[in-house]
Write a structure and sequence with these properties.
Elements (H helix, E strand, L loop, with lengths): L1 H18 L15 H4 L4 H28 L5 H14 L5 H4 L7
Helix pairs in contact: 1-3, 3-4
């Protein structure tokens, strides 16, 4: 299962790297803001962070895949636990709280 997720995470990271600020319209929550409200946020920083997250997740899943083949298939379990921790660390229920660190000051 780790191997299946390597490519999608890498592709999403690549898309955010190529399209930069324009890719932020695909973010859940951010696209629900009005245009005037979106202008208050640093779209380049948002895109850069999403790109980096996806690359980290892709690399993590690649390592999990390699370890699963080399050692035991049970290595996928700690890989997914680490991914869940990384994922939920940056997940917020409140949309405004999720993007607070990107407000232009």
């Amino acid at each position: 299962m780790c191997g299946v997720l390597v490519l999608p995470f890498a592709i999403v990271g690549l898309l955010f790297g190529i399209f930069k600020e324009k890719a932020t319209k695909f973010l859940a929550g951010f696209n629900s803001f009005s245009e005037s409200e979106q202008a208050l946020y640093d779209r380049a920083a948002i895109s850069r962070d999403i790109r980096n997250q996806c690359y980290i997740w892709s690399a993590l899943m690649l390592v999990g895949t390699i370890l699963s083949y080399a050692i035991t298939t049970y290595m996928a379990i700690p890989t997914f636990i680490i991914w869940f921790i990384l994922f939920f660390k940056d997940t917020h229920i409140d949309v405004h709280k999720a993007f607070d660190k990107y407000l232009i000051k």
